[in-house]
Amino acid sequence: MMKKMHEKAGNSPSSVPVKTASQTDQHSAFIAGGGEMGQLIRDYDWSLTPVGVFECWPQSLRTTIRLMLNTNHPIFVFWGESLICFYNDAYRATMGPELHPKALGAKGRDVWGEIWHIIEPEVALVMAGQGAIWNEQKLMPITRHGKVENSWWTYSSSPIDDEFAPNGVGGILVICTDVTAQKKATDALKLEQERLMGLFKQAPGFIAVLYGPEHVFNIANDAYTQLVGGRNILGLSLRAALPELEGQGFYELLDQVYASGEPFIGEDVPIVLDIEPDLRETRYLSFIYQPIRDESGQVIGIFVEGHDNTHSKLIEIQLRETLEKNSAIIENSKDLICVFDHSGHFVSINNKSANILGYEPAEMQTRHYAEFLVKEDVEDSVQIFSGVLGGTPIADFENRYLHKDGHVVHILWSAVWVEEQKKLFAIGKDITDWLRAEELARQAQKSDIIGQLTGGMAHDFNNLLTIILGNAELLTEQLPQHSEQRMLANMIFKASERGADLTQRLLAFARRQSLTPSVVDIEKMLTELNTLLTRTLGENIEIDSSCEGSNLLAVVDVSQLENVILNLCLNARDALPNGGRIAVSAAHAYLDENYANNNVDVTAGHYIMICVSDSGIGIAPEHLSRVFEPFFTTKGVGHGTGLGLSMVIGFVKQSKGHVSIYSEVGHGTVVKLFLPRAADDEQKRDAASQDSAMALPVGGNETILLVEDNDLVREFAKTQLGLLGYRVISAENAHAALEIFQENTKIDLLFTDIIMPGGKNGRELADEVRSICPAMKVLYTSGYSSNAFAHDTQFGTHNLLLTKPYTRLELARNIRRALESAVGSRKG
After folding, report:
1. Which ranges carry the PAS domain (predicted)?
2. What percentage of the chain has pLDDT greater than the value 90?
3. Most buried by CB count within 10 Å: which residue of 184, 210, 418, 480?
4. Which of 3.50.30.70, 3.90.550.10, 3.30.43.10, 3.40.50.2300 is the CATH number of 696-819?
5. Residue 350 DSSP one-character state
6. Class of domain 203-308
7. Does pTM surpass 0.70?
8. Three-class SS string for 123-160?
9. Per-residue pLDDT at 682
C-alpha cells in the first residue's frame, strides 16, 4: 500500500533528496542496473514522496520500473495521484539541464508545467481508466538549455494496473520517440516537392508528360499551355487535344519513339498550331521526346521538353540577306563579329568563331551566349548585356569563353544596340595570347623580386653567421676539452653551419651563389654519382641510370649539379615510402622558339637534358605551381625547409638553363633539367653535322593514328604532326581508336598515350591493334619515364616511349625513329 507523505525540500528545482549510507535500503535490489538513472533511483529518498519506501512499492510499479531501466528506448512513468516522475537513461538524453535531475521524484504538473495544458487531458483519461492513448508527431514546445524548442513526439500512454488504486490504475507508462528530425525532414521534403512543382510549372521552356500509346496529356506546364493557345489539354490524347497536327508528322514521330524506346531531338522544327479558333501560326520549336520507362524497362510514356525559337528564327531569316551583303568584310576580319537578339541569342557570327572558339558558326547560331561562357563570368556578362540594351555602348568589356576543346579564351568586347533593327552588334577580340604574355612577364618579375629579397636576406645572414661561426670556433678551441662551455660553443658552431647551408640555398634560388662552371661530361658524372646515390638512398631504392647519345657535354658547376641531382633523388625517395625505382637519364635536347615564347626565361637552342623521374605518390595540382617557391613544402614540420627545389631552379637559371616538372597524383613525378650544351673545339668542327642531326625530320605521305585523352595535348600534337607533313587521324580514347583502325584506312603508325581513362590503356590498345595487324608500328607517350612502367611486365624495354613534356624536335625525331624501326607498316 502506498504511503502518503509530505513533500519537502528534496523536490526543489535545484536538488534531489538522497539517502545517507545508513539509509541504504536492501529492498532496492529489484532495480539493479539501469545505468545512471538506475543509480539515482536507488539512491533517492523515496520516503519523502507519496511513493514511499521501496518495500511499500506495489508489484506493478516494481515491474514497470525494472522494465523501464533495462531498455534503451526512452520511457517515462507517472505514478500515483501526484503523478510522481520516473524515467530511464534513454529518456534523460532528451532532457535539458532545466529538468534533469530535478524531475526525478517530482510531481508531473511541476515538471511539465509549460506543456501541462497539452498532456493533462490525456493523463486524466488514462488515470480515469479510459485505456491507452496513442499520439503521432505531436508538437511539444519544451525548454532545453535555456531555449524553448519545438519538438515532435510519437508516444503511447498506457495505464499501469494497481488493484488498490482508484479506477484500478496506479500510474501511466509513457513509451516515446523524439521524431523532431524526421518531422523536419518530412516537412522539408514536402516544401522541396512543392518548390520543384512550382519550378516545373513556371519553367521558361515548355514541358509535358504523355502517357500510354495514345499519348494522353498527364502534366503540362504553363509554357506548354501558352504554346497551344491556352487550351485545356490534360486528360486528352494528343490527337484529340491538338487535331491540327494531322499530316505534320508529329503523331507518327511520337508513335516511333514510344515503340522503339529511342529518344528524338529536334532543332527549329516548324509546326503549325491553332493559337485561336481563327488564327493559325507557324512556330519553330527545338525539343526532345524522351521515353519514360517503368521498373521493368517497358516504355509507358514520353517526356516532352523544349523551347520556342520562333522569334530568333524569324530574325535569322530577316537578317540573312543583310548579313550576306556584308559577308566579305565580316569573314575577312581577324575578330569575332556577332549579332545578338534582345534576349542574348546569336543571330549570326562570322567564320572566325571556328579559329577563336572552335565552333562553326552554325553550331552557335540561335544559342544563348551564356551557354559558351565560363560559369563565373555569366552574372557580370548578363549585367553588361542589359546595359547595352538600355543604350550604354561598351568598348572594353572582357569575359571568358570556353573553347570547344575546353580551354579558356579571353575576349575583349565592343558592342552597341541598334534600336531600328532591334539587334545588338558586337566585335570580340581574342586577347588570350596577350594575357598569357603579360602573365609570363608578371611571373618573371615576381621571381626576380623574390630572388632579390632572398638574396639580400642571405647576404645579411651570411655577414652575421660569419661572426657567429668565427667566434664559436675560437671559443671551442680556447675552452677546456670536456667542459660544458666547450660543448655549448660547439653546438653554436654546428647550428651556425646549418644556417650557412640554408643561406647558401637562398643564394642558389636568388641566382647569386658563387659558381665555377666548366665543361662537364654528364655521362661520366652520372656514372660516378651512381655509387653515392645508391649508398645515400638506401637498399629499397633502385637507381636506373642511362644516357642517350654521345658528347653529352654541358657547361655547369659540377659540384652544384651533383647536389641538385642528389636533392631531386632524395625528393623522389620521399615519394616512394615503400621503395621503388628512380630513373636518372641524360640526352641531347632542343628547345624551339615556340617553347621559349611560352615559358619564362627560356632561350631557344641546344641543351643537355637531365631527367629525374619516379613512380611515387605524385604532387597535387594545386601544389605543382608552387613547388619552386622558397620555403614552400608539402612535408610535415621538421621534415624539410622548403628550399630544396627553389635551390634547384635558382642554380639552373643561374647556369642559363631551364627546369620543367610534370606530375600526377598516384603516378609519379618527372623533373627535367636543361643545361647549356658545351661548344668546345671538337663540337665547333662538328657543328654542321650536329645542326643537321638536330634539324626537324619531316614526313612523307605517312598516316598517323594519334590517341590522347587530354584535349589540349591532342590538339597540340595533331597540329605539330600536321606541320611536319604527316596525315593525322586523332581519337580521344582506345575505343574510338579501334573504331577508326577497323575502317579500311592506311595507317603507318599508332602514336598513343599510355595512361588513359575509360577502359583500355595505350599498351592494351597497341596489343589489340597488333592482334589485327602484327606489323603495326607503335610509339608510346607519357608524362612518366619508362621507369614508371617497370611494374607492367607487358611493357617491355624495347618499346619506344616519348616522355612528356616534349618539344617539337623531340616529337619529330621520335616519330621518324618509330616509322623507320624494324617493324613493318600496315597497308590497309
Report:
1. 322-392
2. 39
3. 210
4. 3.40.50.2300
5. -
6. alpha beta
7. no
8. HHHHHCCCCCEEEEEEEEEEEECCEEEEEEEEEEEEEE
9. 41
